[in-house]
Amino acid sequence: MRTDTPQTIYRKDYTPPTYLVDTVELGFDLDPERTIVASRLVMVRNPDSVRNGIELHGVNLQLVALRMNGRLLHAGDYDISGDILRIPAAPDDVTLEIETLTAPVKNTTLNGLYVSNGNFFTQCEAEGFRSITYFPDRPDVMAKFTVMLRADKSKYPVLLSNGNLVEEGDLGDGRHYAKWEDPFKKPSYLFALVAAKLVCQEETFRLKDGRNALLQVWVEDGNLDKTDYAMQSLKNSIRWDEERFGLELDLDRFMIVAVSDFNMGAMENKGLNIFNTKFVLANPRVATDVDYAGIEAVVGHEYFHNWTGNRVTCRDWFQLSLKEGLTVFRDQEFSADMIGTDTGRAVTRIEQVRTLRQAQFPEDAGPMAHPVRPDSFVEINNFYTVTVYEKGAEVVRMYQTLLGRDGFRKGMDLYFERHDEQAVECDDFRAAMADANGRDLAQFERWYSQAGTPVVTATGRYDAAAGTFELTLSQSCPATPGQPSKLPFHIPVALGLLGADGKDLALIVDGANAGTTAVLELMKPKQTFRFTGVKEEPTPSILRDFSAPVVLNYPYTDAQLLHLFSHDSDPVNRWEAGQRLAMARLLKMTAAVGAGDKLALDDTFIDAMRKILADESLDSAFRENALLLPSESMVAEQMEVVDPQAIHLARQAMRKTIGSALRKDLLAQYEANQTPGEYSPDAISAGKRGLKNLALAYLSAAPDDAIYALAQRQFDLAGNMTDRVAALTALIHSAAPGAADALERFYAEFDNEALVIDKWFAIQAAAPVTDVAAVRALMRHPAFNLKNPNRARSLLFNFCNGNPAQFHAPDGSGYAFWAEQVTTLDALNPQVASRLARSMDRWRRYAPALQAQMKQALQKVSGSGKLSSDVGEVVSKALT
Ligand code: 0A1
Ligand code: ZN
């Protein structure tokens, strides 16, 4: 969306809608060049409104006719200014009839009504509906929708919208129609239509209350061999929500439609979820374990929105995390429950912590930092962030940590009891949690209003004579844009104490037995917690299960970390101890690179790694995670002045040392974790492949002919995409003799599988050998297409975010490339461009020579004339 003067919108300026909409009847005459949208709105004046007149939103629409209560309105009866059409004088009860024209085929933004592969799709969240027709396009206006679709029958045999199909038939002129009715009132952002040539897998599914629901997964012809897993995930999601939260599917029909051009992962439109193909299509030949896990999570996520988002929605977009944080938490719990084992659960938790640290902590420390419930924005599309989603999910998780599972469920029940079919605020959710449990959660509000990652500093004091251990916790939070100082948060800190034998000590707090893990509530700037009956000096295991999204500082010694790494009963903290050991070494080695010193890795660390690697009492998935080094960008976050080349060299050297020192052990695990027989994406098998392929990656960091042959053999013989991609990556990263040939063969074999070709681009984009010139060459490949977001992400995003040593090339060529691509993309698709623009967020932390060039690149984009509000907001905040 292009605006000349981007306006900042403030949460404090919220006012209720002037009119409410009872019913909407929409008629679509679909044509790629010229679609006619007829709308009939039955509206009533909102008694809560403090203002007058009807206000409708509309963007890039051609208005053909506007009638109010049957009377044609003329220029003087209404005015259009910017995105608002105002009818100043209107009676209390109004029927508006509006006819508009659009050209979906010209819409490259993938927002509103657009064409992909010749088919029609819509994307209305957050504010896409206003580019389809004039409407009060805000989530607190909830209406009942009836939709009539008309289109050419041979080109668009399938006509879908929300709710139930009530009528369909031929129109005689080669066209046909379908009429859909959604029994639930909903905000306009949940509207959807599909008119397309598609096929579906369908199934009747029995719901808990005995009703039957029709489930469908719609895809392009030729993809029906890739819909089983999405269908299975949908059925699992329905069951899970019935069992865990007592929430049932409220429709007779639930559809998932896959589209290859999509800006995000998927969209929860009522009864008609529209998905990026990436999160629907899978079979062992084309999809990896990570893809399967992604499908399960996203299918779950969108399905769970049916209650958390659709039945109870957001009052305004500042409340976005009300639905997103909660729904991410629900999909996380779903994925964990699907694995079912304690370590499986812990591994999903470790992956969540990694995402937070890798993406959310940097966001919270950068120019786009914002509270989980932002106070202002220029472009709402810029606020579908890791903070709103993932930190939002952590905030919801903390309720469960503080209140217990049952208490959390009580809060959820009360939330639905109070707010079903309403548009509400984050505060309403917090109130339901507090009231259902008789708890004061006033201070907890700061998790919504204050940005930044809190830092918890802990110190311990053991008094042998008294048999006490005192843990002092203090908290602080760095300044963020617009928030120079912060008040204390309400932080749940889960804690255990380990004895010398590695076992948990019984905890006694205030004379009461507190089990082996206690949840301490840190609410003041500084608090001391006292444990009695402690017979030996303990090693504290703090922030178990990552009980709060904070940075924890504790003066651990290497010996203590090794103790935790070997024994902690909490798998997340066991992993965490290993990460701390690895990070300390990565930082030391990075400094050594910078100083031109020799790089060395101590045997203590290598031995600890060896022990975990060989410990077959531990799940393979856990061992894989324990052995995975913090990423280069994670190391960068720890440095005062970032030197991407030094980090890369240090990390590569560390991987190489591990690869050669543990060669025998890695080879043994490589063999022990084979998964012969039919492919299954279950967590145990996926974990084995994960460990085996991590072993291959380490071995390939210190390669010789035998290792090249191993990778080559895996590439040649692999029976699934997980092993295929891992082998190809190993060949390319180690510059193996067979690398180029393997790349070529891979491409030829999957020529017509778009999602696999995305992988082909992605692997190359992130390979250390790929420089800017190589990326430019890949952009000239016939399969590259900037207009397709998945393809653009696979090459450009993976290079700019996933190949730091090359992106930050000292000559600034990466930055110049970035500026070019952001500008070009912005003219096509502002939402995708603006995500790419975020690659420069942390520019102020780089070495001065890089910093200057990054700033220049940012200024170049910012000065390039007609910027979208999306990119405009990101670059201007970066430069502030
Ligand atoms: N609500 C969706 C995410 C989504 C948001 C915006 C979109 O277009 C701009 C598309 C999807 C979800 O959380 O899955
Ligand atoms: Zn969502």
TrEMBL record:
InterPro entries according to UniProt:
Aminopeptidase_N-like_N, Aminopeptidase_N-like_N_sf, PepN_Ig-like_sf, Peptidase_M1, Peptidase_M1_dom, Peptidase_M1_pepN, Peptidase_M1_pepN_C, Peptidase_M1_pepN_C_sf
Q: Which residues cross the membrane?
A: none
Enumerate the catalysed reactions.
Answer: Release of an N-terminal amino acid, Xaa-|-Yaa- from a peptide, amide or arylamide. Xaa is preferably Ala, but may be most amino acids including Pro (slow action). When a terminal hydrophobic residue is followed by a prolyl residue, the two may be released as an intact Xaa-Pro dipeptide
Domain of life from the UniProt record:
Bacteria
EC number(s) stated in the UniProt entry for this protein: 3.4.11.2
Which part of the chain is the Peptidase M1 alanyl aminopeptidase C-terminal domain?
558-879
Q: Where is the Peptidase M1 membrane alanine aminopeptidase domain?
A: 229-447
Family, as annotated: Belongs to the peptidase M1 family.
Give the enzyme class: hydrolase
Single GO MF descriptor: alanyl aminopeptidase activity
Q: Gene name, please?
A: pepN
| Domain Aminopeptidase N-like N-terminal per the UniProt entry, residue ranges | 91-190
- What keywords were assigned to this record? Aminopeptidase, Hydrolase, Metal-binding, Metalloprotease, Protease, Zinc
Q: Which SUPFAM superfamilies match?
A: Leukotriene A4 hydrolase N-terminal domain, Metalloproteases ('zincins'), catalytic domain
The protein in question is named Aminopeptidase N
Known cofactor(s): Zn(2+)
PANTHER family in the cross-refs: PUROMYCIN-SENSITIVE AMINOPEPTIDASE (PTHR46322:SF1)
Residue ranges of the Peptidase M1 alanyl aminopeptidase Ig-like fold domain?
452-554
